[in-house]
Amino acid sequence: MLDQTTDRTTDRPPDRPTDRPGAPVPHRTPGARTATLPLLAVWLLTRLWLVPAALKISPFVGGGGLDPSVSKVYTGWYAVLSGGSFPLHDVSWQYPPGAALPILAPGLAPGLDYDHAFIVLAALCDAAVFALLLWAARRRGRSLAAPWLWTVGLAVLSTMPWNRFDLHVTALAILALVAATARRAWADRAFGAVTAVAAVVKVWPALLLAGTSRGRRTRTAWTAAAVTGATVTAGFALAMPNAFSFLAAQESRGIQIESVGSLPFHVARHFGWSGTWAAKDGSHEFVGPWVHGVSIAMQTSTVLAFGWLLWWRRRSDRTAARVLPDAALTATLLFVVTSRVISPQYLVWLIGLAAVCLLRGDTTQRPVALLILAACLFTTLDFPLLYRGLRDHASWLSIANLYVRNLLLLAAAWLSARRLRRGTVPARRPV
Predict the structure, then answer these.
(1) How many independent structural domains does the chain possess?
(2) What is the distance between the alpha carbons of residues 43 and 150, in angstroms, rounded to a whole number?
(3) How many CA atoms, within 13 angstroms, populate the side-chain half-sphere of residue 398?
(4) Torsion region of 256: left, alpha or beta (phi above 0 gives left; psi -120 to 50 gives alpha)
(5) Terminus of the chain with fewer CB atoms < 10 Å: N or C?
(6) CA angle (217, 218, 224) in 5-degree steps
(7) Is residue 405 one of the residues assigned to a domain?
(8) What count of Cα atoms within 13 Å lies in the side-chain half-sphere of residue 105?
(9) Could you read off the pLDDT of 138-184 as tens digits, one per residue?
(10) Cα torsion angle, 235, 239, 242, 246, sign
(11) Each residue's pLDDT tens digit, 287-338
């Protein structure tokens, strides 16, 4: 499914002839249409299975309530937000004010209750992303690896993506990166503005700005992002009280039991460690000896990762069009593996960014995309299948699965940064 185009990581290849302004668009052959049919069939069949399963209307998943993230958490937030205020004393509300947009949107859907409307809107976001990736891949005769990765990656994650608003944010991030490729005067401003809107919903899309090329394009995109972000944030702050209550909740975050920092504690539970897990800050976190120290270490590693990104920006050649999505994926991977939290929905971000990278044949991130796809499988095994054994019983099978998943993400982050550096930082000439 992912094509085998050779990556060139040491020399920046020239853009394809079809990428130059005014170049003719390749003729659509019957073979190209035929190649699209299996992709459309797989996307349709997987969604016909997974979306009804998320809605609990599939005959194969039985009855019961919808995912608690929607039926309890999001519904509770909706009740507060629709009353004109942000949640003030809810420790699970840890998002910028723009997160109110995907939470409030299902209330506008006619004829549906909130829970089902949320999943339906998420399904529409998925369909929009698939259509955008397919259009972007076919418009210049490129590989269909990008929509294939999106189709298969989300399917491997089971019903989880449609029960989280991370799909909405990822859709905005993909739209921003695709808009940046347009050969129009407004492209950089549109990229910056859409990126800012996504970042006001959930902070991580600000990392898309890491790969902007030097000079005018950086100034234009960053200015548009700053103005849009400030405007949207100020609008929420003026319209609804407690817009910045999420900052206090973020300060107390600990080591969530699925993060990289949690790995030693899972093993330590079998060797007399006196700590345990607790429902805290909207997730399950470890509490006990050494946890605070590991939390400090994880935060330090995040600072070091961003220091590396700053070094890379100072030294790199970012003129190639592939660098923007490649750098976005690298920056986000570094953020994920050094975070004190790795929730299953983080894989939706990574699949989306990797798919945009695969829109270009000269991307440096092709093997990284395969590692992320493999991590999706172990993520689904971890949550929900093996999660109770990991949390409550420290099952060796659950621990081994988590180790594999996190080691895959660590390998993806290392490989992504290495290939990005080799593909953009000129080698030093001998003195």
Answers:
(1) 1
(2) 9
(3) 19
(4) beta
(5) C
(6) 90
(7) yes
(8) 16
(9) 987 789 999 999 999 999 999 999 999 999 999 999 999 999 999 88
(10) negative
(11) 999 999 999 999 999 999 999 999 999 999 999 999 999 999 999 999 999 9
The phi, psi pair for 395, rounded to 5°, reads -60, 135
DSSP state of 383: I
Give 349-363 pLDDT, tens digit per residue. Answer: 999 999 999 999 999
Between the two ends of the chain, the Cα-to-Cα distance in Å is 45
DSSP assignment of 285-315 equals: EEESTTHHHHHHHHHHHHHHHHHHHHHHHHH
**b/e sequence 61-80, b meaning 16+ C-beta within 10 Å:** eeeeebbebbbebbbebbeb
Range of the domain at 326: 67-240+249-424
Helix and strand tally (H, E) in the chain?
17, 3
Residue 14 lies in a domain: no
Structural tokens at position 219: 């100034």
51 is a domain residue: no
Helix (H) / strand (E) element for 222: namely: helix 216-239
Give me 106's structure tokens: 């299902």
Give CA–CA dist 209/310, Å, rounded. 12
Q: Is the pLDDT of residue 63 over 80?
A: no
Residue at 198 is within a domain: yes
Decide if 234 contacts 261 (C-beta within 8 A).
Answer: no
Q: Long-range CB contacts (< 8 A, 24+ apart) of 394-398?
A: 394/266, 394/269, 394/270
C-alpha separations of 385 from 341, 352, 396 in Å: 19, 24, 14
